[in-house]
């Protein structure tokens, strides 16, 4: 295949050249953390709204039993298994995130596990594919974001089509030309807009499943000779021209390419199951809760100032609807009221029942919201509680725990994993917590994915 003068060719060449043995131990350890966190999020969101519909449709669409639906003895076609697993992983918005809203592991890990069952790969191969795929997409993200933040209204999980296609292509052992077409086909599928966040629709969850499904389908189509667009990045209708806020910085694509594997330095692992823009707000309100609980709520005025990014995604008045879980996950007012009144933010506090609790709804609706246009940090906010005769209580927040500037430790992720599995609706996962942790820890030297699958699908 001859290059056609698109920057994606340089990245594609690297995906073929990089051998699993080349990846440093630190990079592989980070990929194990991604798998652990992804399975925690999947367990927590196992029976969330929309997951039953996703499973029912996947069973209708599936004509073979190639890969497992995690936590069960059900096997479906690989794209459909990945679809269901990705919807569950994303359901509570508990999954890792890269600015400005790409949730890489929610689709990457389901793609990797499904394709590993097709390709018979080693544990190290799976970890390497995850690392190379994330590096590929993050370089594109970094170049596109050089002169702006959001992608012109498109959901930045479109980046997951790039990473997922590369992961699938590696694990299915596609030839270089086939890999290029897989990436082009994945890009051609497109995915999502930020409108589904603003409208609090279940499309947020389903779109993540479509990313995983389409990534595998793109690789499978390419393997059968279907060609995809080749000027993926710089074509007149390529990624940069369609989505980048301003001109892309192409130098970001190749800095230490094949030497440094991007991902860990930009990934946020979440402590709470809600939008990552609001992590700092929950941290700050929980820290101040002792004083807040002494205040007479009925006599208090509450004002929440926030960055433009927070205002756009999470600043609407809180009114729980028939998608109350999502209303809560993407509401700054609900997040503040929940932390204030309940003192915790676990998956349980984001169930439909808890999201409609009158006391929390009442406080959330009393909070007055203001946008501060000169705040550039996306999670910057300020909660001010005023009452007659007292000095106002001011709570400043930014750089929530979990973002790279304020990271969670690996031990924190194990705590999260155990909590998610304790609360999971999936009994096989609840009963197998310790073995899953052990199998993930041993994945680098595992001859196949079989031992991990026996732990996460213990009834197969």
Attribute tags:
four-stranded mixed beta sheet; 2-methylcitrate dehydratase PrpD; MmgE_PrpD_N; two-stranded antiparallel sheet; alpha+beta; 51% helix; 460 residues; lyase activity; 2 domains; single chain; 60s Ribosomal Protein L30, Chain: A; MmgE/PrpD_sf
Give a short overview.
This protein is α+β, with helices and mostly antiparallel strands and 460 residues long.
Descriptive overview:
The protein has helices at 8-17, 25-44, 51-61, 78-90, 104-119, 123-144, 159-171, 176-189, 195-198, 203-223, 239-243, 279-287, 289-292, 308-314, 324-329, 332-342, 352-355, 358-366, 410-423, 427-430, 433-441, 450-456, and strands spanning 67-68, 75-76, 97-98, 267-268, 301-306, 368-371, 381-386, 393-397. It has 460 residues and is α+β, with helices and mostly antiparallel strands. A hairpin with a 6-residue loop joins strand 1 (67-68) and strand 2. The chain folds into two domains: 8-271 and 404-456, 2-methylcitrate dehydratase PrpD; 276-397, 60s Ribosomal Protein L30, Chain: A (2-Layer Sandwich). It contains 22 helices and eight strands. Helix 2 crosses helix 4 and helix 2 (25-44) runs parallel beside helix 19 (410-423).
